[in-house]
């Protein structure tokens, strides 16, 4: 490790470095770690103005971390550990913003405690265009009738020819509001530029978007999710290796858009249900044993100016970090201009989002939830009803049997294929639904105990409780006894069920004797 001389920067370059440092301090990569922020600020300041030799492990340990002058680096490794953490955060930040114009990038090379500055634009432009995303004007949807005013600055001169070419193809755009806004993430390379919005729907009226992604994705249930589009503002954060629970599709939650941002989604006239997906990732390493992470990020969500979520906290809503969280809203319609305008406004920290679904429905109706427990793909029954791959679960084990335990005498039972798989153990399902009354149907079939199965056990071998939002639906439920033997499908339905304050029907399966299990779950609107 070495110190070296301070780097001499002219006023314009120093201003650009400080603007980039401020942007990093506000980014999702650094906002959760006070120590990393202070370390980066310290080394940047001392690289620019510090005395010769001030950036060595011992001097940093004493000056920044208040270690004694004679501390043993072999015992106190905080300087090296923090430097490595800052390197990772810098790499993560710039990877997530790949394609974004950065007049200067701040680096920390391995083996050094001095900051490096890599210039990617003329210094005179650096301070001009490096404005924090949340201070940029919010672009409006494309309007073909608007005129293009004369360019106002050097940055506009560099993009006007490109914009004019695009107008010739698309028929015009809202330049007055968009001028000066730079792309906020790598997604722009996929034909998505903030403020430039296609006025047509995709071929499939089911619209699904993975926020921050540049490529389409097919989930376990065979549904296609498109890359990020229709956005303005914010920046993208990538967590490629986080383990995320309550989903078989963690890749939906690898990218986040954070900051103060908007979506303007073109829709055909009609009624839709809106699904917003979240997962608070990257906090697990920064939460103490006494804290679960609530309160670190709070924001509002609105649709067409109407508030959908007030002071929303993903960790509190999902009951944990690295947990997929879905909120569903009914009776969504485009505004008069034909767009669904979604706004994500920070209250504390930054707003965030992982994925969006906009699904057409009959006015006043909602799509049912049907889950095939333990199964890793979607399935359609003879009536054409689709059952999703196992979803929304936490805990337990998936089991797919080689032989369907349902007896031949029951082969005429509807949806008999559902009983070839199950989830068993001590587990729960958090089913996302908007306010309303619902009918919940649980499907069971004893596939382990009895002469036709393992040859052992019978009545009393499996007893468990089922709770809905903390209220008992069934106690000491015995599939074998209630169905009259093994391999006999049996349903239990419950009406008048309402979601909890987090917009979930939380079903908990708690073992009493042996293990709890379920083969399938269906939730439909209760029209009675």
From TrEMBL:
Keyword terms: Carbohydrate metabolism, Endoplasmic reticulum, Glycoprotein, Membrane, Signal, Transmembrane, Transmembrane helix
Which positions are tagged coiled coil? Answer: none
How is this protein annotated for GO cellular component?
A: membrane
Query: For this UniProt entry, what is the primary localization, expressed as one broad class?
Result: endoplasmic reticulum
What molecular function does GO assign, one term?
carbohydrate binding
Instruction: Give residue ranges for domain Malectin.
Output: 212-327, 370-493
Q: Which family does it belong to?
A: Belongs to the malectin family.
Q: Would you tell me the protein name for this molecule?
A: Malectin domain-containing protein
> Which source organism does the UniProt entry give?
Solibacter usitatus (strain Ellin6076)
